[in-house]
Amino acid sequence: MDNFSEVLNLFLSIDNFIAIAAGVLVGVIVGAIPGLTATMAVALALPFTFSLEPVTAILLLVGIYKGGMYGGSITAILIRTPGSPAAACTLLDGYPLAQQGNAKKALKTALYSSCVADLISNIALIFFAGYLAKIALNFGPPEYFWLICFSLTIIVSVSGDSVIKGLIAASLGIIVSTIGLDAVYGSQRLTFDSYDLMDRVSFIPLLIGLFAIPEVFEFYTSKIVPHVRSAVSGASLSFSEFKRCLKSIIRGSLIGVVIGAIPGTGATAAAFISYSEAKRNSPRKDKFGKGEVEGVAASEAGNNGVAGATLIPLLSLGIPGDVITAIILGAFMIHGLTPGPVLFQENLTMVYALFCGILVSSAVLVVVGNTAIRYFSLIAEIPKSILLPIVLMFCVYGAYAVNNSTFDIGLMLLFGLLGFIFNRAGIASAPFLIGFILGPMFEDNLRRTFLISKGDPSIFFRGPITWLFVSLTIASLAFAIYRYWQSRRATYPSLKKTRCIISISFYRSSPYAPCVQGEGGSHSLLNLNFKGPKHEKRFHL
Amino acid sequence: MNKLDADIGEVEERYYGRLNPNSILGLITAALATFFLSYLVPNYIEEPGHLSNPMLSPRFMPVVAGWLVLTLSFAMAIEGFFRPPKHTKAEKLHIGIPKSRWILMLAACSIYMFLFEQLGAIVCGVLACFSLFAASHLREIWVYILGLAFPIIISLLFIHLLNVPLPAGMIWE
Amino acid sequence: MKKLIKNFASAAALSAVALCTTISAVHAADWPNDNIRLVVPYSAGGTTDLISRKVADLMQNELGNIVVENRPGAGSTVATGQLARGGRGADHTILMASPGHAIGPAIYPGLRFNPVEDFKFVKKVITIPNVMVVPANSPYNSLEEFVEAAKNKEVTFSSPGTGSSVHMSGELFKNATTTQMVHVPFRGSGEALPALLAGDVDVSFDNMPTVLPHIQSGKLKALAVTTPKRSPFLPDVPTVSEAGEQYGLKGFNTSAWFGIVAHKSLPDEATTKLIDALSNVMEGKDFNEFLPRFGAVAGTESGDEFRTFISSEVGKWAEVAKKANIKR
Prior knowledge:
By secondary structure, chain A is mainly alpha-helical. Chain A has helices spanning 2-11, 14-32, 38-45, 54-79, 90-99, 103-137, 141-152, 163-177, 195-198, 203-211, 213-220, 239-261, 267-281, 293-309, 311-317, 323-334, 341-346, 348-376, 384-403, 406-425, 430-452, 464-491, and strands spanning 180-181, 188-189, 503-507, 527-531, 536-540.
């Protein structure tokens, strides 16, 4: 009990509350600005924390981190500009919702699922840090490799109407991700001797280019259509809708917690996995990608579930899981503290004071988020002819800010063009992003595994974790194929009784009738059909 | 959305013929992938002398991804050939765009791309905003005042608050 | 006529500006007469950034306002190359150089600057030793045991990235001992450390602050430190040079160091001023409280000594990179 009062003493200071509130507010705003990420905000705030008390300093940084995680979703929903990489998943359903006049609903969904996920993540941090840290330590290169394999299967569920096109986009993403100096040999890969490309293609320009810029290009190459009022006052999130999403939110949070506890995987992967799982389990899976509240909820839950959990390896092992926690580690060190088991022994009071603050930050996020929604959603009222030039300006400044280089502006516009071509060709951009993020992780861990095993492939199946992810990968692929057949049967009644994987069916019909697809679209992998004057042979592969 | 439909008019749901966007796109990407595999990879990705395992090669991932693109593009081209896609509503929006509209957009992009360091962030922002406003035929004066104020305020915020040294413009020095 | 006046006016203005810059360069006695820019060649939030900001903060009392600016890219070579080119404001720009300054030219092909000739060397501020560590469950308890084992079988060493001081230390060790060591690159110590702790890799030459807590908690065993002198934080651990004398490791010296460099045109008086200011800072209580938090010791070399140090580093890494076949 003595301890408890000490903790309260340390925590209950006005400074701490100001730090949390200011941190969350700054995080939300910076996170919402395209090109400026939570990482940048945390890095910029770091010098300010030199003179603060350790608890206050860390809480300020954690506040910015959490605010930034949510803030990224605001502009993703309103102007299709993910403020942070993880929000790229939120826009898949958030932006269509906003375009249908439901901006407020999308924003509220994002906020509440973020807060619930944040809370779950914090609870995991406080009570299960020890267990989760053990998992992190058992994650060697082969385990990572299978985790990435499993994550790659989500490409299927974010490919939109055509899985082939999605896979092409993902492969292109992988190709782009290999540009730069090779990680093992240091040899140049497709850099064309340009210094700007040696450190790989910058992520933020690619992200903005892929999602935000095509909106600008699209607008100026289309007829001027009257502005659709998205009605900020429009429907808010109803309780029944929230209840419907709750399962996805909790699932997403848990996915986020596990991914967050494993260093080096990141919030973006968590968001996409959570989204994909929600889509797989939802009765409304056909609506995903066209403005489904549950999709927004799942992806936000996934990425915010990571926020608390990345502190697990940091606090209990002293291992930073991502760039932000690396910066927070720096803040600890500046104040003469060393995260890790020693911290729990020597500064237990401080750790608990931190936990109190982190819990409070979830509540602060609700308040700050609600205020932010009120003002930010005014953006939806601005006609595109005025909004888009300003968005473009923000994007340019933001892309420049990443490396202070004009090369990145060109890069952003180039990826904008690619995204525009993708849009016109009906290719989803999300798989490209996933390929770009996961491709290098896949390659790195594949190579690392071979390096540490000295070439022995049996290491790929060395323990229960590898087997778990192997089976998850197979299950996920099997499910994708099953779903594909199900949707085909729904589209082509004549296939109802076919059981084999490759079917050849012959039937008479008007030349194009069977092509009329349902709302969800059939996920066709390959169709061959030979058309004759009177009947038609179709080979469905 | 009703107004939008009215503007576009009736859209008949026609299918493309054999020469359809999917097939063309598939063939183009297939060609690009061939170029990538046969020219770019061998010439621009160096391989170390001896490798204990082919999967360790710097060329491994690009080649795998390249072959994936190649095969999938062919699949897409074939699929498009036998099962052509439909014309969509959105396509009608792309026809008959005044040239000035997208040329002004290209101008704005070029300003950002090529003149950012020379003219500075503020001037580029103003010029680009103006040309984009003009592309939408905006006539109201207040919009242009906004286009003047925004780049100035935002770049000052970036420079002084966020510590991002946006270029001030070389020719003004 | 109007045009002529305009032209004349602008020409006059231009020459006035030019004159001012020359004057400022000549009157070094008043240096600094403008804000000093401290360029950090890595992104904000990293170790280099942290140290730079702290040092800048402390130096402000001596030299007036110092603006810290991050210019990351291609190791640290983008920022370094920019400073080497000089140009406007170069006389008020200083750069926090780190091992990348000397390793970069060995790894990145065709850099258009000379890491020694194009700069004026002010002072090395901080040296952080690297520590040769093995996992707790490793069979090796000393450097000798490790080298003997590594002569007969392949062992792996990890690093947070190709071209980091951690990686290059490993390559240097491998060259000197002619052992069969295989480099396993990770991205950042966040990924590298778990693999080391779990025993997936055999050894690492990681930076002191990264591994010190784990050595203290018994999860890692320290075999040696890479500096010529033992570290005050691990007084019982021998140096690589002393423990590995019989394997040709005598004189083995690698570390993560941070020091201030400037463009070669910086007047000597300004350099002296900078050195004095830094020396004052480094004697101060604040700086000496800050050092142990990073397992660091204060740098000693300044001026020409620092230049000699860098040129020896440049030579050393160029050779290592060539042998390891990193530069291609």
